[in-house]
Amino acid sequence: MSVTLIIIVVTSLISIYAFSDANFFEKWKHNPYIEDKNRQYYRLLTSGFLHGGWPHLIINMIVLYSFGSYVESKFTEIFGPGQGELLLLLLYVSAIIVADLPTLRKYKDAPGFSSVGASGAVSALLFACILFNPWASFELYFAIPIRAIVFGVLYLVYSQWASRNQHDNTDHEAHFYGAVYGVLFTVALGSNIFTDFVNMLVHESPWW
């Protein structure tokens, strides 16, 4: 079984269990106020294995499977079996934590703020995928074709705007910083990943 599938199984089992155990859910969710006051920083990680309901879980796991499988195959191709899978796991787990850090700082004095979900880590995998194939065709809302690099730019712009202007239950900052971290992590691995990305972006464009 691939690392991506293992992550999906583990996340799904924990999320489903938490649906019926409110106490467990409360102890694992990302709550900056409690994390700061009680030093419960483990929540930065555990919150990534919880979801707000079935639609939230299903959508995240579908996207995780799509992009995680691709990034895992590329990591394995570049770094070899074993190391490639380990790097995928390291990217995913660390992205959960990194994506929550901005809201920890921003809302540490706001008892009412909390969030759950794997979206920050999924965003990291999405943007690692864009690095490897910037001109791939994504299906926006499963119907509208859009180039990966264009989608990536729009995603970052919207996430940044929404984090400042939207007052809903979505942690848009986690999306933004998870995406940025996914790029930085992947580029830091070396192996000409960034150079290859630039070459594909300039020389393989379907627009000219």
How would you characterize the overall build of this protein?
By secondary structure, the protein is mainly α. It contains ten helices and two strands; from the N terminus they run H-H-H-H-H-H-H-E-E-H-H-H. It has helices at residues 3-19, 22-28, 32-38, 43-46, 54-79, 83-106, 119-132, 148-165, 172-188, 193-203, and strands at 137-140, 144-147. A two-stranded antiparallel ribbon has the order 1-2. The radius of gyration is 17 Å and the shape is globular.
**Oligomer, anyone?**
single chain
Q: Please give the alpha-carbon distance between the first and last residues.
A: 41 Å
Strand order of the largest sheet: 1-2
Helix/strand order:
HHHHHHHEEHHH
User: What structural class is derived from the secondary structure elements?
Assistant: mainly alpha
Average of pLDDT: 90
What is the makeup of the main sheet?
2 strands, antiparallel
Radius of gyration: 17 Å
Strand % is: under 5%
Helical proportion? 55-70%
Draw up the topology in text:
Blueprint lengths: L2 H17 L2 H7 L3 H7 L4 H4 L7 H26 L3 H24 L12 H14 L4 E4 L3 E4 H18 L6 H17 L4 H11 L5
Antiparallel strand pairs: 1-2
